[in-house]
């Protein structure tokens, strides 16, 4: 996976300094910066070398030199697509998924996107006309932004690369693609509609049938994500989703290691240590004392993550510590359990909303993952040159989850019941019966970071990210404020609101009580396993 930056349009060559700044801002996403420069086009990639590490140099150009591709992500079924290209008489020069992206789009057009099983965002430039085809994976695991300034089009993987332009920055929405030119607004449209997932397909009300399909689909989603000669890490909280991910990775890849972050005495460390001991899997613990997290760490998490909701920012502080340790361990590929809560009812809001709106809430959460949970995972992992893969959000899983009725997602007092049932023989009892606990809470670090929440608005403004989106209250809070009326909450969220001074004051009072109490607690000194 990589970071990309482009400047397209007449006189682009005069923006070398700006282009250098753009590329520098995304350089942490890769190991090497690769560029292709002309008078009217500046193309750059910060490449994290994973697939065909020697030959997949970017920007990748077509054999005739007409096209150039800047690609971020991975297409996991690239070998299958390459074979189809060869069967049609098209030749390739590498074993990379980068080349497959370029050649399949040239061969099949927009239909190529629906054949890709991957996590990707890319810009394919026609060098003569300076037109560019922009595309992003169905759920938005990988980011892509654009801005127009000075008669030129600027494209980048992160908002921070475009802030200095002083203009509005726009997101390429998940599941969208389209053509753009330096002097026109990109004409983007959905090639897959996230609000219609599973539509027109039969539900799977039979327990055993749904469990069988779920087990096969998730196992395959993990399988294609561990098809690498590199060591594979797993982000392990000890909860259902990450534990299941580790169990499957251990079965499907010969060399894996688990990483867990948290305060000593936290739930996550206890569950994760027990599981890795039982499995005999190497376990890297990232112990963090709450008092170690200060304003610097919070601001850095905001700078890296570019997040707009408070809960996600708090989780990003924890993720920063985790992925720094992954990088230090020399691991470039990790799998996470993210997305399962959104697909299989892991949040209490799914049980509080009316039956008629429940499916729409599932679809709403999925459609907005690109700017919440997935944005946190992408920025904090890639900011440390780590590629985080999310098997629960494979396109096959998205479709399947919408065919499984709610009564199989929450049953017998358990959220994500069908996932527990489908893997009952694989999951230890202590994992199968553990309930959902949000990341920052279960790591024991939430209340410490919460101490700085009243400063979030000032920190956010100082970073200039309001050029893309304002800081705003979590959607879960908006939904609760409107009595779990989904239509009212969605309407309200269209005009984002920040927390009020009163809400910040109550927040601070609660956080101060916890942090003052923690000062008198006796510190525990331990070593990692």
* Strand order within the widest beta sheet: 2-3-1-9-8-10
User: Structural class, please?
Assistant: alpha+beta
Strand tally is 19
Helix content: 40-55%
Question: Which strand-content bin applies to the residues?
Answer: 15-25%
- What global shape is seen? globular
Report low-confidence residues grouped into runs of 5 or more: 522-529
User: Main β-sheet: number of strands, strand sense, barrel status?
Assistant: 6 strands, antiparallel
Q: Return the average pLDDT rounded to an integer.
A: 93
The number of helical segments is 23
The whole-angstrom Rg is 23 Å
Q: Could you tell me how far the N terminus lies from the C terminus, measured between alpha carbons in angstroms?
A: 29 Å
Q: Can you put this structure into words, describing what you see?
A:
The structure is a single chain. Strand 8 (145-149) and strand 9 form a beta hairpin. Strands 2-3-1-9-8-10 form a six-stranded antiparallel β-sheet, with helices on one face. The protein has a six-stranded antiparallel β-sheet with strand order 4-5-6-7-11-12. It is built from 23 helices and 19 strands. The model is unreliable at 522-529 (pLDDT under 50). It is globular and about 60 Å long. By secondary structure, it is an alpha+beta fold. The longest helix is centred in the middle third of the chain and has 19 residues, at 207-225. Keywords: Amino-acid biosynthesis, Asparagine biosynthesis, ATP-binding, Glutamine amidotransferase, Nucleotide-binding. Pathway: Amino-acid biosynthesis; L-asparagine biosynthesis; L-asparagine from L-aspartate (L-Gln route): step 1/1. Belongs to the asparagine synthetase family. InterPro entries: Asn_synth_AEB, Asn_synthase, ASN_synthetase/amidase, AsnB_N, GATase_2_dom, Ntn_hydrolases_N, Rossmann-like_a/b/a_fold. It catalyses: L-aspartate + L-glutamine + ATP + H2O = L-asparagine + L-glutamate + AMP + diphosphate + H(+).
């Amino acid at each position: 996976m990589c970071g990309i930056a482009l400047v397209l349009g007449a006189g682009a060559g005069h923006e070398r300094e700006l282009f250098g700044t753009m590329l520098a801002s995304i350089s942490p996403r890769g190991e090497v910066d690769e560029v292709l420069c002309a008078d009217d086009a500046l193309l750059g990639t910060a490449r994290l070398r994973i697939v065909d590490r020697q030959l997949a140099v970017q920007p990748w150009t077509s054999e005739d030199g007409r096209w150039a591709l800047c690609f971020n992500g991975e297409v996991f079924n690239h070998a299958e697509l390459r074979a189809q290209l060869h069967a049609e008489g098209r030749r390739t020069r590498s074993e990379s998924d980068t080349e497959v992206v370029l050649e399949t789009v040239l061969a099949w057009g927009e239909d190529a996107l629906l054949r890709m099983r991957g996590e990707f965002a890319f810009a394919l430039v026609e060098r003569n006309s300076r037109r560019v085809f922009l595309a992003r994976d169905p759920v938005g695991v990988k980011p892509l932004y654009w801005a127009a300034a000075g008669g030129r089009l600027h494209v980048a993987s992160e908002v921070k690369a475009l802030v200095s332009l002083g203009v509005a920055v726009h997101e390429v929405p998940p599941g969208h693609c389209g053509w753009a030119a330096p002097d026109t607004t990109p004409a983007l449209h959905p090639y897959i509609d996230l609000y219609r997932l599973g539509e027109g397909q039969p539900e799977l009300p039979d327990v055993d049938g749904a469990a069988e399909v779920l087990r096969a689909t998730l196992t395959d989603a993990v399988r294609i994500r561990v098809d690498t000669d590199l060591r594979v890490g797993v982000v392990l909280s000890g909860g259902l989703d990450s534990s299941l991910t580790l169990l499957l990775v251990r079965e499907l890849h010969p060399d894996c290691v688990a990483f867990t972050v948290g305060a000593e005495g936290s739930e996550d460390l206890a569950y994760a240590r027990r599981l890795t001991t039982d499995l005999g899997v190497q376990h890297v613990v990232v112990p963090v004392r709450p008092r170690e997290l200060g304003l610097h760490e919070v601001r850095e998490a905001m700078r890296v993550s570019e997040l707009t909701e408070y809960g996600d920012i708090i989780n990003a502080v924890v993720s920063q510590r985790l992925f720094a340790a992954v990088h230090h361990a020399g691991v470039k590929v990790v799998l996470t359990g993210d997305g399962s809560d959104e697909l299989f009812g892991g949040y209490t809001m799914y049980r509080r909303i009316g039956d008629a709106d429940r499916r729409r809430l599932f679809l709403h959460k999925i459609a907005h993952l690109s700017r919440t949970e997935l944005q946190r995972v992408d920025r904090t992992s890639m900011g440390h040159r780590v590629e985080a893969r999310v098997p629960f959000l494979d396109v096959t899983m998205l479709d399947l989850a919408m065919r499984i009725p709610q009564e199989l997602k929450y049953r017998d007092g358990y959220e994500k019941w069908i996932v527990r049932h489908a893997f009952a023989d694989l999951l230890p009892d202590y994992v199968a019966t553990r309930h959902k606990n949000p990341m920052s809470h279960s790591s024991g670090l939430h209340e410490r970071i919460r101490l700085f929440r009243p400063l979030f608005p000032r920190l956010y403004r100082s970073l200039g990210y309001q050029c893309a989106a304002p800081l705003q209250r979590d959607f879960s809070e908006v939904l609760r404020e409107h009595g779990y009326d989904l239509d009212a909450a969605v309407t309200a969220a269209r005009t984002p609101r920040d927390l009020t001074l009163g809400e910040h004051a109550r927040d601070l009072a609660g956080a101060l009580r916890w942090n003052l109490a923690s000062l008198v607690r006796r510190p525990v000194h331990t070593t990692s396993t």
